[in-house]
Amino acid sequence: MKKKRKIIIDCDPGIDDAIALAYAAANPDDFDILAITTVSGNSTIDVVTRNALDLTEFYQIDVPVAKGMADPLVRDARHAEHYHGKNGLGDCIIPHSTRKPAEENAVFYLKNIIMDLPEHEKVTLVCLAPMTNIAILIKVFPEVKEKIQEILFMGGAFSTGNVTPSAEFNIYADPEAAKIVFKSGIPLTMCGLDVTQKCTLKRSQILKLCQSQNKIATFAGDMAGHTLENTFEKYKGQISVHDVVPLMYMVHPEYFKYTETILDVDCSDGPSRGRTICDFRWWNFEEGQAGDLVLTDADPDSFQQCLIEALYELGDMLEEK
Ligand code: BDR
Ligand code: CA
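Above: the input record for the complex with calcium ion. Below: its predicted structure, written as tokens.
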């Protein structure tokens, strides 16, 4: 029998975060979700936490949600409402949940849940947002590093950015946090724009989702449709579903190509601020040094088929409950 991975998802829902949570919920044989933590990113910390609570109820994911940091380590917060809509979910409405966030801040919550793991067990962190919570966790409670198997994150790019020519949103929002995580020694897998921009839903697929009778498919289609109609994505006729990638990579590594690297990030004030640097010079790697991976390519057809199937499956699973 396949061993489930224990994961914690740190996110800022966010349209693609919301679709990623649906993907995780649709794969209960692969993921044992221990908690969902939120961090300022696509919207304010209050909005993304509200969304995480509503989404867990909507998808019937029975895990705690802990609210994390409201601001990046150094700079002011920047959000992306122009892309994700005023409510962060493409202005699509789901029922309001009466669930409440954990009493502790996500950083303490993470520390406790990680240190409470049984002796030989470790957790995988899946980061779909700026890395503020994780950086503080690692700095304040370095003992957690021993209990973190790896960190997979959506962020960065080795080619071009999306917020600036150099930088991707999650990393640009808090490069100092990313630096702390990159230098932590915890094995990392970067799922950057180079690959996530190939992991799209096409206009025809979005329309089909919207017209379906399946509540999860319709919800995902409506959110994706909002992006398609209201942003520059309309010119491409498809939208990238970035945050699904780290989760799908864990279930289906065969859909992706990847290579070893050493990661760094530019924290300077110049035009490269927030740019991720992937060192591919393997001949310079000392033994045991290049523990990081970066995804370099994806099979878009497999991605689309797998995601669409997962959305319908979750809708069907919830109907049967
Ligand atoms: C990333 O930024 C956010 O807007 C998305 O949710 C995704 O995590 C893409 O650059
Ligand atoms: Ca996100």
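Notes for the reader.
The two ends are 24 Å apart (CA to CA).
The CA atoms of residues 99 and 168 lie 32 Å apart.
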